[in-house]
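Case study B.
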Amino acid sequence: MSVWAALAGGFFGTLVLTTALAAGSQLRVTRMDIPFLLGTACTEDRTRARVVGYALHFLAGLLFALAYYAAFVVLGRAGWALGMVFGVVHALFSGTTLVNVLLPAVHPRMGTPSSAANSTPLLEPPGFMLLNYGRPTPVLTILGHMAYGAIVGAFVAAAAH
Amino acid sequence: MSPFDPSERYAPLRDYALIGDGRTAALVARSGSIDWWCLPNLDSPSVFGALLDAERGGRFTLGPAEDAQVRRRYLPDTNVLETTFTTAGGRVRVTDALTLPLAGLEPFRELVRRVEGLQGHVLMRWRVEPRFGYGLDRTRIEPRRPFPVASSGGTALGVCAWDAGPVTCDAGGMAGSFEARPGSRATLVASAAYGEPLIFPGRDEVERRLDATVNFWRTWSAQLSYGGPWREAVVRSALALKLLVFAPSGAIAAAPTTSLPEQIGGERNWDYRFSWIRDASFTVESLLQLGCSSEARAFYWWFMHATQRTRPRVNVFYRLDGGTDAPEVTLPLEGYRGSRPVRVGNGAAGQLQLDTYGELVDAVYQFARKGHTRRLGTGGHVANIADFVCDHWREPDSGIWEERAEPRHHTQSKAMCWVALDRALALARAGLVPSGHADRWTREAAAIRQFIDVRCWSARKQSYVGYAGTEHLDASLLLLAIERYEEPDSPRLRATIDAVRRELGVGPLVRRYTGDDGLAGGEGAFTCCSFWLVEALGITGQRKEAERLMADLLALGNDVGLYAEEVEMGTGDFLGNFPQGLVHLALISAATAMHGQDA
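Model:
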């Protein structure tokens, strides 16, 4: 198994995931906008935030691909179906913990349940399973991450043969 | 009874004032109810649409709980509205604005309502009832912390309230009440998001943005170069037009509304949230004359780019983003005071309206005449249009009024074809347009003149007529003076102006035409025609009469100086889409033309 294949899969997988979420936003299915969420942690400028956010999201995609790769190595096998299962776990982790709890905790412009009168929350927090951004958001997020996992799994498996 | 009386389901159109931010706009009634707001853009579906359906449309009410007298104005030289309610118990001031962005993270769109207690104690009530998608989409309302949120699909509205009482949420909306006392200040913000998470602003930032918005409008108004006798009306018209400029593209919407009826209960209800090429030359000339060269340049490039996509044919109008697709759809809404159908999109898009070509080439000519020759860059496009006019001017068309009857040989359309060729020749002589076909343009221009002289003149009426072979008159004939088809001292022109006034005039008002237009029902007097008459009278040297008529017309605007498309004869009520850009353009054009004669 090749770590480079995992990174390549991570890149293309993130491309698909980002495109799927952007399409969902344009089709008025969801208000989930990962580049905007990540980028506004660094800057208040809307346009710059999206550029920074895309870069951060792709970086995160590559890091998660390395985690997937480690799991493939431990299990001794890789493939698109296994990657898809990882994607479901990844999406559930993102929706319940990563974006819902950890991101608001470190994001300087997002409210948390403990925000009080002396704080000024700016950005709408995502809520459990990102439901604040629209009811179809969890489904779209899970499907996007399944696609991401399948692509990473397929790239790693292809390189192994 | 509070100023917002639910038993009066629809406010008179005269009661509305417009606020906006260059991307979207909202209509605020004298009662304090915001009954029209589209998200995220001017031509998007409404989130407050009570204007078109009092039950389903949604609104944002804010006003005293008891009976009140209402006075309102725009803060001088701004598009920020100030409404003062005086009740038996005291006085309170509400300031409404769609704020403009500053540096920093701010809402995608932000509607701010600031309430200041001035005197005594006034119990204020507010309620936000968002209804997305013209009230037809399912709206979910959640009592979230720190602020409640309404959402539907990719659009959401958060309501932030400071010192505006405890907020209650129910299935229909969010509400609160509070007492305004001298020195008290409450702030309500509707923060909108489209395809992204909501931004909940801090109160200080909101106040800062509101102040900056006031300053922006004042700075913008200060650059207007008109110094004539009707400055207040001209500045208000320019500010109203600025709200119709869709900043992301530079297009100018004809009006911010759809389906406000030309007759209460009638079927003449159209969507005007598009940019008409017809208005192009008026717009470019008026903006340039007022010193708004950046807006004129943006609009010029927008329409040259939009028409490039359909060249050499020019559509009647284009979407604000420059697109051409605008299918007409009927919405299942009650309509303003029961006036159905409620339409979005506009079926006139596919009509042949030959005057459009003249207006487009004249706009290029005006742009070049003001010294923008180096940036013209559209000579080939203009030459193609001139050739197209030569090929098609003999065809009947739907005319300036977009009649839905059989196409006819409209006099004004033919005259504007002549204008297209005349201006193309002038541009060719200046070396700005290829002159290879100039001989043909000259021949065809002469042929058009002969057609109008022979077929569109009535010896009996001593006037040009609305279309060839009829005796009906049409107020668009006034444009023959304004567009300089005829010289100011032309006997035929003067006789036509007299005839239009005699047959179509009702006091200071002017009806569009006599005869059948293919639609059932009647309509009011078209306000723009009255201002055209002022300008035509001024051009032909009837200055005193023009000034008297101008004074009468300025008295017909509403309390904040805005005009609808039409005025109902007799009652003076407003009809049609509101406020209409063409009326305000005609007002500016008449005022600047007469002031230009003074200078």
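The interface with chain B takes residues 25-33, 36-37, 40, 44-46, 49, 109, 111, 113, 115, 120-124, 126, 132-135 of chain A (CB under 8 Å). The remaining cases will be described in the next quarterly update.
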